[in-house]
Design goal:
Layout lengths: L1 H21 L4 H50 L2 H19 L1 H6 L2 H20 L2 E4 L12 E9 L8 E6 L1 E4 L2 E4 L1 E8 L6
Parallel strand pairs: 2-6
Antiparallel strand pairs: 1-4, 3-6, 4-5
Length: 193
């Protein structure tokens, strides 16, 4: 900053010296020289202004990109924890799915377990987890479903559809982290004549 002050003082001194030395020159020439110098100064000022504006815009964009990246990182930072909780959630689903064994358990105990499950599920949902619960008969979707077995079906329209749900799946903010495990219908035309 000190250099800038020295330079501007130097320019003023030089400029004043030019004026003193130019007193003998034609005033029209002096005005023309001053206009040229002013034009050059305006051009430099505009270049500096535009450069500063570009730098300011680049900084604002970089900051927005950083904030977006940070938000995206935080959105999926829980994925490891969620993957570790999924087996416990699958155990709940297995227990609830075995109707015969589940019905033999004391009603109060079942209600308590179902309450604990609903609390855990609510916390997961608040953190972006959603269950993938395919319905029997819906088309097989290899992104949302993992086929573990093909079961023969008699009707063509039942082919490539979910025939049984073995395990529910999980998605985190729409990203599939555990597909639902299903049995898929396999239709084969008989070739007997």
């Amino acid at each position: 900053m000190g250099e800038d002050i020295d330079k501007s003082a130097e320019d003023e001194i030089t400029f004043e010296a030019e004026l003193d030395a130019d007193n003998a020159k034609d005033p029209a020439e002096m005005i023309k020289a001053l206009k040229e110098k002013l034009k050059l100064c305006k051009k430099e000022r505009q270049e500096y202004l535009e450069g500063w504006q570009r730098a300011k815009a680049d900084y604002a964009n970089a900051r927005k990109d950083e904030e977006k990246s940070r938000a995206e990182f935080l959105k999926f930072a829980q994925e490891k924890l969620i993957r570790e909780i999924i087996p416990a959630m699958q155990s709940f689903h297995s227990a609830f799915g075995n109707k015969v064994a589940w019905e033999k358990v004391d009603l109060n105990w079942r209600m308590g377990v179902q309450y604990i499950y609903s609390q855990l599920l609510a916390v997961l949902e608040q953190n972006g987890i959603s269950l993938i619960e395919p319905a029997v008969g819906e088309p097989f979707d290899p992104i949302r479903h993992a086929s573990v077995e093909s079961v023969p079906v008699e009707k063509r329209e039942e082919g490539e559809t979910v025939r049984e749900v073995l395990q529910k799946g999980f998605a985190l903010h729409g990203k599939i982290i555990e597909p639902a495990r299903v049995k898929v219908g396999g239709y084969h035309e008989s070739h007997s004549n």
